[in-house]
Specification:
Alpha-Beta Plaits; TIM Barrel; 2 domains; eight-stranded parallel β-barrel; four-stranded antiparallel sheet; 14 strands; about 35% helix; binds phosphoenolpyruvate; binds manganese (II) ion
Length: about 350
């Protein structure tokens, strides 16, 4: 931690800051310049609130030099985390992108779900996604089929061999959801539900953590930190767009830059959900391409057997035919990106 003192700071104010830190076992190195004094404090930063230090008289600024991500950050683990999802399917590192597809909500029409699941499997997806517990903006909207929906997902897994990913909304439901799901999803609205995150640390299954609609990348990684600190290292980060000022053409703003940023600061796999990021069917294809080109470890895409009559998110859901066509494109792109990653990308592009 670096403490920059005001040029006008008196010696007694400088000493007071140093004393405070020394009593907390920080080692202090004084750097006395012509104009101002800068203190370097080496120690356990968890013992002090930087904001309260910054409010001491004579202090101009307190700078943290280490990233706060002890477990999710690259500082603690330099190599990429690869998560063994199940049945040999791996996500992260140099593994080919994992494609997750399925309806926003699991609905009554089980045949519809099975149609989507068979299409997803044949087209090359690895995971069927679908919500049985739905976090909806309005309490009057469809809230999900709950356990009945989980049973439908399990049936689709049995028929197709796809893994299933589904959302868990509340701590008391974790055991139930985990007894069906292969991968648990934390929705964007729950990214900062710290009790839920802590409880998921005790579950022995991978967790997809979606970025909150207004969460900074730092808050996103710290949310992952909560789950990891509580004991579960298998976190997949999911960029799903953040709230912007213009929702006329897109539901959210897809923060493509977050992918290389997250990959720089964290070793965890990161996937992109272009469906919630854009809210528009025609934007799924270009944004999926952008996500893979930017280095995403996977995609999560909403697909419905009859989007016009979907209980939720129909406008952003692909039809099964559209998904098939998208996968033809993405499979070509995946191959191309794989080839590029084996060659000198700079030489190829310039
Ligand atoms: C979903 O995945 O269907 C969903 C509700 O997404 P988000 O939490 O990103 O809004
Ligand atoms: Mn949805």
């Amino acid at each position: 931690m670096i403490i920059v003192m005001e040029p006008t700071a008196r010696e007694d104010q400088i000493q007071k800051v140093a004393k405070k830190l020394e009593t907390l076992d920080f080692k202090i190195v004084f750097n006395r310049g012509e104009v101002m004094t800068v203190l370097a404090a080496i120690g356990d930063k968890r013992l002090i609130d930087p904001a309260s230090l910054a409010s001491m008289e004579g202090v101009r600024e307190v700078k943290l030099i280490q990233e706060p991500f002890k477990l999710s950050g690259r500082e603690s683990k330099a190599d990429d985390t690869v998560i063994n999802l199940k049945n040999g399917i791996k996500i992260g590192g140099k593994n080919p992108p994992v494609i997750m597809a399925g309806p926003c909500s699991v609905e009554k029409d089980v045949e519809g779900l099975l149609k989507v699941a068979y299409t997803a499997k044949q087209a090359g997806a690895q995971v069927l996604r679908g919500g049985a517990f739905k976090p909806r903006t309005s309490p009057y909207d469809f809230q999900g089929m709950e356990e009945e929906g989980l049973k439908y997902l399990a049936l689709a897994r049995e028929k197709t061999g796809l893994l299933i990913a589904t959302e868990v909304m509340d701590t008391p439901e974790i055991d139930l959801v985990a007894s069906y799901a292969d991968i648990l999803q934390v929705g964007a609205r729950n990214m900062q539900n710290y009790k839920l995150l802590k409880a998921l640390g005790k579950v022995g299954k991978p967790v997809i953590l979606k970025r909150g609609p207004a969460a900074s990348i730092r808050e996103f990684l710290l949310a992952a930190e909560y789950i990891m600190y509580a004991g579960n290292p298998d976190i997949i980060l999911c960029e799903r767009g953040v709230k912007g000022f213009d929702s006329h053409y897109t539901r959210n703003i897809l923060d493509i830059a977050s992918i290389p940023v997250i990959k720089k600061y964290s070793h965890l796999p990161v996937i992109v959900d272009p469906s919630h990021a854009t809210g528009r069917r025609y934007l799924i294809e270009p944004m999926s391409r952008a996500a893979l080109a930017a280095g995403a470890h996977g995609l999560m895409i909403e697909v419905h057997h009859d989007p016009e009559n979907a209980s939720s998110d129909g406008a952003q859901s692909l039809t099964t035919d559209q998904f098939k066509a998208l996968m033809v494109q993405l499979n070509k792109l995946k191959k191309l990106l794989q080839e590029l990653s084996h060659s000198n990308i700079e030489a190829v592009l310039h």
